[in-house]
Amino acid sequence: MNWISEVVRPRIKTLFKRETPENLWIKCPDSGQMVFHKDVEANGYVIPGSEHHMRVTAPERLRLTFDEGKWVDVALPEAAVDPLKFRDEKRYVDRLKDARTKTGAQDAFKVGFGRVKGLPMTVAAQDFHFMGGSLGMAAGEAFIKGAETALDKKTPYVVFAASGGARMQEGILSLMQLPRTTVAVRRLRAAGLPYFVVLTNPTTGGVTASYAMLGDVHIAEPGALIGFAGPRVIEQTIREKLPDGFQRSEYLKDHGMVDMVVHRRDIPETLARLGRLLTKQPAAKGEAPAPAPVVRPVAEAI
Amino acid sequence: MRSYLDFEKPVAELEAKSDELRALEARGDGISLSEEIGKLDAKASQALKDIYAALTPWQKTLVARHPQRPHFKNYCAGLIEEFTPLAGDRAFGEDEAIVGGFGRFRGEPVCVIGQEKGDSTETRIRHNFGMPKPEGYRKAVRLVEMADRFGLPVLSFVDTAGAYPGIDAEERGQAEAIARSTDTWLGLRTPSVALVIGEGGSGGAIAIAAASRVLMLEHAIYSVISPEGAASILWRDTARAQDAATGMKITAQDLLKFGIIDRIVQEPTGGAHRDGEAAIARAGDAIAACLKDMAGLSAEEIAAQREEKFLAIGRNL
After folding, report:
1. Cβ-defined contact of A208 to B175 (cutoff 8 Å)
2. C-alpha–C-alpha distance, residues A31 and A23, integer Å
3. How far lies B76's CA from each of A186, B1, B72, B165, in Å?
4. d(C-alpha B174, C-alpha B179), whole Å
5. Same domain, yes or no: B46 and B132
6. In this structure, are residues A27 and A5 in contact, taking their beta carbons and an 8 Å threshold?
7. Which of B175, B182, B233 has its CB closest to that of A168?
8. Smallest CA–CA separation between A252 and chain B, in Å?
9. Rounded Cα–Cα distance for residues B302 and A92 (Å)
């Protein structure tokens, strides 16, 4: 996944002690062009021109989704820490501590409640920057808490999935998050509340084998890697190169697994429109009806 | 011909000696060796008992994968009368990595679903080494929905290294098929019992194991990823599979402690592969006890209890 590596820092940064912001320039993994970080940030971390969708943090995702970037944080329950006392080359508790220091978050999910294009919604965002967005006990509890919030507030529930899969350091307890999160989805369904999944780059493994593939509607960001088995595992199994575009959003749409591939800037409007339709609410006022989202393949857009 | 695992070597030696003496005695030179043979047999069985009482997680992994360990088809033959397999997902095809149908367990009609690895080159290929594809899970969903409609309990037998990782499986939505299967199992309004008989490999296993009661054979394993897979990702070295097996806590004993499974089914001394019939009979008793437990519950109670059971997992660790 080298082409995804996001940020190229200026190498000579340390030579000059001037107050220059970090990550001033970003190299587009698709086109190779250099673009201003500020321009990319202003564009919702989509690179202008190539339309390459970069990964975003969970707080950034909520900011991009809720009206005026405002929401109410949903307090997330604590989960048992490292009951397996797991260590690989490093102790799991140390890995957790590092991830928490690096991201300032407790785990891979952030959940907010607010308005999306005027419609109240509960939104859970998974953060790939926190241990690859891996699904462990804390993330499972967070997802469930988000669903409970949606049930409580009677809003649609939106999850932005971004994850390499189950958190192996939690062993079987991470696998148990598959049925646990599925129970939460079933309860939304029973209550008649819409559940929307936005698949972002990447969403693989146990996350796709549970809540990320059980949405009423599946929306994918362009070019995202989405699949059950990782490309490396498949290549090792079948011992041949994988076809171009395999397990990308557009491929999943072609194969009937996602409903639409939508540009990041159009996602809030799409969610709100679907939410209003499915909960029989009047169309949003004051805005011209938005056209159906059209996303050109990334290659064409360059 | 009995095959031995590496750590069973002391037993192999004792049993070989005892067999030799038996052969000698059979030649009929009039010498009675029965005392010697008896001693050797006792020693061998004690050695076997000692070894199996202290198996490491990695050794259990090898036992769980033992080629002579009873497979789903053996459980099915031993426990289910009138077994009538059904085929196909009604959308794409038939996947024999998952075998399922209806039959009678101790006289009562049930739905039976299991992963079958096969036991010869031909059958292994036919069953895709027990690694299901989306159509296998979708067939399972179809059967569970039928069981729900006709009010029959569902028994499942888990034995897979994992769902098949291939282009065709991805193309047809492996992830969605697994998610939907777990989903359907969770919504079932009749009692369900899942028994891990060998390997419980990740999402490929949970898809047919989100049951009212989850049981494991004494030396079965159940994990989020195979020890080799974890070793390759976490240590970047598959040779560390033993460490991964230990660290991930994959044994029935650990899983019972963490509240993941409801009970352990004891295996005969030396593992289920030494005495398949006894293992299968004990499994049958355990399943029957679970079903008896749930007798008299309403459809709503059964579904609600199952959901609560899974939600509770990990909350009091």
Report:
1. yes
2. 18
3. 31, 24, 6, 27
4. 9
5. no
6. no
7. B233
8. 8
9. 37
Q: Which residues have C-beta within 8 Å of that of residue A31, sequence separation ≥ 6?
A: A47, A49, A50, A52, A302
Q: B65: closest CA among B241, B292, B312?
A: B241
In the predicted model, what is the mean pLDDT of residues B266-284? Answer: 97
Q: Are residues B125 and B202 in the same domain?
A: yes
Q: d(Cα A67, Cα A79) in Å, to the nearest integer?
A: 31
* Amino acid identity for residue A169 in this structure: Q
Tokens 């409903």, residue located: A259
Facing B165 at nearest CB: one of A80, A176, A237: A237
Does B31 share its domain with B92? no
Tell me the nearest-neighbour CA distance from A108 into chain B, angstroms.
18
Is B1 part of a structural domain of the chain? Answer: no
The count of domains in chain B is 2
Encode burial over B241-253: b for 16+ CB neighbours within 10 A, e otherwise: bebbbbbbbbbbe
Give the model's confidence band at B115: pLDDT under 50 very low, under 70 low, under 90 confident, else very high: very high
DSSP state of B134: H
pLDDT at B25: 84
**Residue B269, in any domain of the structure:** yes
The whole-number pLDDT of residue B110 equals: 98
Does the N-terminal peptide bond of residue B268 adopt cis geometry, omega within 30 degrees of 0? no
A168 token code pair: 């192996």
Secondary structure element (H or E) that encloses residue A282, with its range: none
Measured between beta carbons, which residues in chain A are less than 8 angstroms from residue B202?
Answer: 166, 175, 206
Mutate to test the interface with B, among A204, A216, A228, A235 (most CBs of B within 10 A): A228
User: Each residue of A188-230: pLDDT tens digit?
Assistant: 999 999 999 999 999 999 999 999 999 999 999 999 999 999 8
* A182 with B172: Cβ contact below 8 A: no
Give the count of alpha carbons within 13 A of B158, CB side only. 29
Structural domain for B67, as ranges:
61-316
Residues B21 and B39 in one domain: yes
The tens digit of pLDDT for each residue in B67-79 reads: 999 999 999 999 9
Q: Chain B residue with minimal CA distance to A229? A: B165
Q: How far apart are the C-alpha atoms of B260 and B206, rounded to whole Å?
A: 12
Closest CB to A80: pick one of B233, B244, B314: B314
**A232 contact partners, CB below 8 Å, separation of at least 6:** none
**Token pair in block for residue A40:** 């990319």
Strand residues in chain B grouped as ranges (E):
80-86, 98-105, 108-115, 154-160, 192-201, 213-217, 221-223, 263-265
B60: tokens are: 């259990």
User: In whole angstroms, what is the distance from residue A276 CA to residue A258 CA?
Assistant: 20
Q: What is the pLDDT confidence band of residue B296, given thresholds at 50, 70 and 90?
A: very high
DSSP per-residue codes, A236-280: HHH-SPPPTTTTBHHHHHHTTS-SEE--GGGHHHHHHHHHHHHTT
B179 belongs to a structural domain: yes
